[in-house]
Amino acid sequence: MGRIRKLIQSDIQTVFENDPAARSKFEVVFTYSGLHAIWAHRVAHWFFRRRWFTIARMISQVSRFMTGIEIHPGASIGERLFIDHGMGVVIGETCIIGDDVVIYQGVTLGGTGKEKGKRHPTIGDNVVIGSGAKVLGSFTVGDNSNIGANSLVLREVPSNCTVVGNPGRIVKQNGIKIDRLNHTQLPDPVIDMLRSMEDEITGLKAELEQMRQHIQVKSSGSSVNDVTYERTMKESMNNSTGQPDLKEVKQI
């Protein structure tokens, strides 16, 4: 019971540390939907771990209806999670969230397929995920990283990085700014595919030309042998016996 009280107090204090608009504990406890969603999830997760799945889903569904925040009861969240505003936040079943994470409205921590097992992201400690960001897939976002608003993150993010854009790209790592992409030299998958097809067609043309020449050579050789055969047969028929000379025919 003491641990639960300590956890509740920690959650309330987290709101004050992250939201300058918070004025009193009464206001925080009764009006912050992100806090309500976290508390409801802790209860739902308790039932989920004991395989009371239906009860767990019912609790999460009521919480979703009341707060606009959908956290699957199977998700694992650390301490001092702060969900600001919160409307439209979705956290998937196999998602793992570390300590001191801040999530803004419209964030999705989801999967990219229908496979079973781990399919949602793992969020490290002290990560900030901006409003509207989508982090999709089973990979890790490292500690102390920032995901910019409306970013689409589909691959691993090292620790101490800032990611922005769609698709998301790292613009800062360990406090050092990453060079901008040269957009005039970006790879074009369509052009690459067309070039590959062109090379393949060129190779096929070369093979066809070789086959055509081979057939012509064989055809020429066959015609010469046919003419020689006919001439020999005629000469043999003109001998005294009126029969072809088999020795001459065999020599053709």
Automatic annotation (TrEMBL):
Q: Which UniProt keywords apply?
A: Acyltransferase, Amino-acid biosynthesis, Cysteine biosynthesis, Cytoplasm, Repeat, Transferase
EC numbers, comma separated: 2.3.1.30
GO molecular function annotations of the record? serine O-acetyltransferase activity
Pathway in which this enzyme or protein is active: Amino-acid biosynthesis; L-cysteine biosynthesis; L-cysteine from L-serine: step 1/2
GO terms under biological process: cysteine biosynthetic process from serine
Judging by the UniProt lineage, the source's domain of life is Bacteria
Q: Note whether Cytoplasm occurs among the keywords.
A: yes
| Catalytic activity annotation | L-serine + acetyl-CoA = O-acetyl-L-serine + CoA
- Enzyme class, broadest EC rank: transferase
A Gene Ontology term for the protein's cellular component:
cytoplasm
One Pfam short name: Hexapep
Q: What is its main location?
A: cytoplasm
Q: Where in the cell is the protein located?
A: Cytoplasm
UniProt keyword annotation of Acyltransferase present: yes
Record-linked NCBIfam families? cysE, EPS_EpsC
Report the family membership: Belongs to the transferase hexapeptide repeat family.
Q: What is this protein called?
A: Serine acetyltransferase
